[in-house]
Design brief:
Blueprint (H helix, E strand, L loop, with lengths): L2 H8 L13 H7 L14 H11 L18 E2 L10 E6 L7 E10 L2 E9 L2 E8 L3 E6 L4
Antiparallel strand pairs: 1-6, 2-3, 2-6, 3-4, 4-5
Helix pairs in contact: 2-3
Length: 142
Amino acid sequence: MTLFDVAQRLVGEIQERTGAVDHPFIVWCHESTTMGAAADEIPWCSSFVNRLAWLLRLPRSKSAAARSWLDIGESIRLEDARPGYDVVVFTRGSSPTSGHVAIFAGLEGNTVRVVGGNQSNAVTLAAFPRDSVIGVRRLKAV
């Protein structure tokens, strides 16, 4: 089973809860980072990838920061990415420190498809513009 396989199984199953009650899976994902347990309103894309990588004994950043994945695994070209163990790091807004990380699902012209957490407050399949990609990393078993 690959990182992509596990993430895809969670599409439609995990989403933030409204009010004071947090989704226990998202809190569990946060616990896999140096941030520790946190509310499901805190950005959790990196926490999601960290938890899945931990489950599969893959290298992980242990950070809740999306851009922390730029230093994990092997750097590959977007054109060489394939569903399985490849993660994509995107810019987010104009901040040089903000970002988003998700698991590669496909490339369609100028659109990168990914499955990830904290996409519309849930685990979803989403599309991002190719020009927002700042890195693609291939994770290999430790």
